[in-house]
Amino acid sequence: MLQLDLDKIRRKIDHAPLFQRGGTLKSANGLLTCSMDAAIGDQCTIHSHSRGELLAEVIGFQNGTAILLPYDSNESLHAGMAVTRFAHGQYVPAGPGIMGRVIDALGRPMDGKGDLTDCTRWRVNRPSPAPLHRARIRVPFVTGQRALDGILTCGRGQRLGIFAGSGVGKSTLLGEIAKGAEADVNIIALIGERSREVGPFLEDCLGETGLQRSAIVVSTSEQSPLLRVRAAHAAIALADFYRDQGANVLLMIDSLTRLAMAQRDIGLMLGEPPSSRGYTPSVFRLLATTIERLGNSATGSVTALMTVLVDGDDF
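The chain above was modelled as a monomer; its predicted structure follows.
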């Protein structure tokens, strides 16, 4: 007997675009240019005969054409390919069904556990809490690590950096805190991690106990710099979602350094002038807007732990 998931069909109909705008690909040289009417932040589909549909995002304009950055490689792309705009802005699935799941920067499940259920679409790009509506940091945040709680006590709603060189246990510490912290929800963003490190982090550092109370967003090092930036945005949006519901959220970003490097790659491709260590002006704006979205609001809190890679252990 044929059974239809009417709720799933209804959701797809509600989110389907009523009309589509498109154009053609004009050039591909790291960045793509396309003759189409689009806004910055629009997501587009490039129709390739050999690779199927490729996703890209509008990140700027130049000489009357839209500049696109693909979420994947430029291989096999050529001038004249059809480009279709299908969405504006980024959304992430948020709700009870996201707990214990691993998703990518675009909200697609990566853990092989099937589609996400019991979730709503939550807009990623949201404003920071108003300065006068932020609750003050008055309550200690218990990490579950006695050395930290006894000597370096954290406050609920603080934004803290974990500074260390590579291979000294930053990810291990985050996993232990995720298992023992007194937080309602854990949101973990793995930005620029090596692919081989994701599985051991989930199984060894986080474990089944930590995974059940966490939502994990992953963008590995071989992916597009745009996806790495979008993964951080998706994780912060999830933290916003639960904070707005009155939850005390623990957000972990591993690592903030690789997020800055990803934005540096995008800025250099757009022709921004490099400054110290090649970082472009957009990097500093990204870091400021990212960190200011965290902390306390009038309803809940986001306590953030962000790892920072120190080159050569140079403090």
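The longest helix spans residues 225-244.
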